[in-house]
User: Fold these one by one.
Assistant:
Number 1:
Amino acid sequence: MPRPFLIDTDAGSDDAVAVLMALRHSDVDVKAITVVAGNVPLEQGVENSLYFAELCQVDTPVYAGADRPLTREYVSADWFHGADGLGDWGDRYKPRRSQAGEQHAVDAIIETVRSTPDVVIVTLGPLTNLALALRKAPDIVSRVSRCVVMGGAACTNGNVTPAAEYNIWCDPEAAQIVFRSGLPIEMVGWEFSQGEFVLSPEDIDRVRGIGSEYADFTIDCNIKGMRGYEIQTGEIGISLPDGVAMAVAIDPLIATSTSHHFVDIECRSELTRGMTVVDKLNVADDVRNIDTWREVLKNPARPLICWELDAARWKQMLYDLLR
């Protein structure tokens, strides 16, 4: 029996690969794709998500959600992904027949979780939709089997500021709600979109050699992002943080070193806005006098933090799903 997934995405170029992986995996049944403003504005994200489903020839419903963060001004990542989120190929990746569902993404999340036992939620963008769903229906927490979050950076550098990764930085208030909710979160941080996790020029050639429309799409829609990643890091290759997170969601054994810790999100500081503060040394009990940690400690659930992943295993999964 395929495992039920719900994917919440901001539909940029690395999201495209992650969604494609889930839609093509024989052991995954994607019940819904919900879209949030992030890499691209909401309307563009919905269009992209419809294209992903159309490319994979599935009728997975797509729902539009929040078009801005809870309290912040919306800031896209189009400089990296392109104005269309998929590398600025014009009409090449426009859906031809699909249409988004009428239901709001927040309600779709609530309904899907309530009606689908042991659903796995995978978040690939800012956490606005999920935070709004939790506010409206806190009962869904106990109905989710796993919540794999591509976001944050555990005790390391970010990609939008030195302290923060984009998905969390974009809407830190939403991220704080989600991380404090008690959901069974598994955090796959931005650190796994660098180094050995990046598709190297040799890996790109291997994907091209597969010769399928899925393989060509994976490379083509990420070409602009490849240039952006080189500007950002000096490293040549295609960085796919959402693809890595989806690989962990599909195959938990890809995570070779994990542990549970208290986590909170910085919302007050301009310097460290959106920082995922991970209590790696488990010293939170010693800082109970700090108001922020009092709130965190009210909920005994501790997110599972990924510290090490099997890069070869994630890449092999990708190659297999692109055939």
Number 2:
Amino acid sequence: MNKKLRSREVDRLFEGILTLKSVEECYAFFEDVCTVNELLAFSQRFEVAGMLREGRTYLEITEKTKASTATISRVNRSLNYGDDGYDLVFERLKKEEKE
């Protein structure tokens, strides 16, 4: 975790997010916290990460998500050199889908 990011306020935000119990609750919270463009950018990066993990090409990803190559590169860098947050979430989603 980036030490510059860690703070009491960010901890509190994440603790609040962890209390959400449904997709509908997430919509209500994130629509209040984020702009529409911020939320769409988050979801686009998440989709890009999933496609990169599947081995899709930048061209395929751009065509499907309309993400710029800069965004795809940034997500790819997070997948390769980040804190494995994407991997954690994707593995948990995969496990839930199997159950």
Number 3:
Amino acid sequence: MGEGRRHNCAVLPKAAQNLSVSQPSITKAVQQLEQELGVTLFDRNQKPIAMTPRGQLFFERVSAILQSLQAAADEVSRLSEQARCPVRIGLSPWSGYRLKEMLADKAWAPPRHLLYNLAERSGPEVFRMLQAGSLDLGWVIDVDRPRGLRFLPLETQEICCLLPRTSPLAQRERLTFPELASEAFAMNLEAPEGASVVSLLVARACREAGFMPKVSVNLQQFLPTPEVA
């Protein structure tokens, strides 16, 4: 028995290393399996240790079963991947963070058959990619609506107006754009490619109210101080 154990310990370290477990765990597992089967799987009197005929038979049968299980798992995995539907979504920097937060929220489980591919681009670039067919969905702030695209409203947000405390309008909870016709604005009215989306929305709302905003501070040039605001 002492000699058999020495042979056993000489061989099992390699198996333990391959399986990333301890050698005593391998030895105990083999002994328990032999007890359950009622046979000797390894001839420990040989040097090096070798499988008995019954051990060889058991190994061949089990190997075939494990190979069949692996093949079945691979086939099911391939079918699962084929069944998943990729969705290409374009996100504008001003609106994309909301969708990212929703997808990362563990309380909200997206459909398992959908595979999301996110691309962060400017609003106009998202529109161009949608028209070219390289995106399936765009998540943007509504500025201008190009033709040929279908728009679905998802949410609305308020625009905050910063006013001096001495302004009569500062005491109001809500304002309409016509009421701001005589006020000076601090905003960016550059070309749409480089302009703030919020500024474009404000400029459009002013035009719809019948006036163009009087811009006294261009936010593209510098960040306003609290005094400017």
